[in-house]
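I have been asked to look over a protein record a colleague put together. This is what I was given:
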Amino acid sequence: MTGWLGRRLFPLLATAGLIAAGMAGTIWGPRFYGKSAWAVPDDLWATLVAAQRLLHLDLAGLYTPPTNLISLPGTAVILVPAAAIMEAAGLSLRHAGSQGAHPVVWLLAGPCETALAAVALFAADAAAERLGASRPKRFLLAAAGATALWSVAVRWGHPEDAVATGLLLYAVLAAAGTRAGRAGWLAGAAVAVQPLVLLAVPVLAAAVAPRRLPGLLARAAAPSVLLLGAAAAANWTATINAVASQPNAPTVDHPTPWIYLAPHLAGGSVAAGPARAAAIAVACGCALAVRRRWRQPRWGTGALADPLWWTAAALALRSAFEPVMVAYYLWPPLAAALAAASAAWRRLIPVCGTAVALTFFSQVPWRNPWAWWTPMIALLGLTLFLARPRPGDVAAARTVPDARRCAGDVVESGG
């Protein structure tokens, strides 16, 4: 355990710092704006209610109000331990979002969900270690990663995006160690938690040997099929309606130019499902385009940066095609891009700068379909451009941990 603590010191410190800064910012931060109410993430409460229902084996209520769940059941599964801790502490989640200006449940919910989201920081550090990044580079990576993670965990309360992205990065590491079986299970767990990572599954599939592809895809699908099948068996109508329509509210979030093509639903919402299917189709095309260059028996230390970058590019397709955006949608490709750039200062420093700038710039409340989306996509594109691996950027030859040990960090860290 001491050895693991030493190797993962920077993400541990970054996690502690993010929890401390996040709780201080949500509780005392509003006073700087003349407000007394805590700045807690409203989206978190409904998901915690879904987790509490799972804790009591109420599968029929997983997709019924007030959960507002439209993702796969894994989104709620990862929060079951947090719901159990809060229940043991005697804190009620009933109407948690409207418990007044100072919801006491946030004192437990905040640290729990932020620590859960930090899986992504540990995965990025494991990738940087595998790439041969020095400790100063990994320190900067952890600091920038935690800053960007603030938008997902603290500001919006969606730890499922971070957990899914972290599991996906571990899947890439497992594939780098020619462990296609483990890569498939990790990818499957990631998809079950947040289906957005489906965009990167074709990239992962392109990196494995053809004879291992059926097994990888079967493992990647199994967790989602089992969880969704159980929920559908308990309440077919509510489950299918929520998962298939993928509603989003343009009057609440940021509409993009794709809003004009999105199917409109009742209550002023639009269906995001068709646009997300189109993004997956484009991701499959990207995977086919790069598959030939990756046909080698084993990735080397330098070759890992390329799949990490393509993972970031695939995850960015969500932001490119979404009819309605929220600021935290931009985070997953930033996390993968930071990991891909970690081996070279000339890539890591500018990528850290653009990632942090995009994190805070994206919080502006603009609602015009072009005014918000255009600069965000431009800055995201710049981040990907700066993170792109180039000849000579790979760290000099040095002692690099075995790929199996890096991939095994997901077990050690509780991910």
Summary: The first strand starts at residue 247 and ends at 248.
